Input
Amino acid sequence: MRARRQRAARSDYLTDALTLLSGWTRDGAELRRVLACDDSQHAALTERIQVAADTLRIRPAIRRTDGHTQISLRAGESGGITDGQVTLAARIEDAYKTVVGSS
Output
């Protein structure tokens, strides 16, 4: 019984944290984001994402399509979103603001 309560609290925590990250969509155990940026911004953003992803041991899928950068963060075998995915999503948001110059 106790494990179920902890699991529910963790799930609520991640869901709450994810709601603070506007623009990210959740599809099962995958988080997605599409960002508008030019080619040089895409390159700078990708570098920053890779540094953060390496630290968290997550392999994001990043691709460039029609002037947009598409990012996908997939969970491993856990089946649900993870602390690491939400953390990386937050770091990507910070990196995007820095690279693009948004406030």
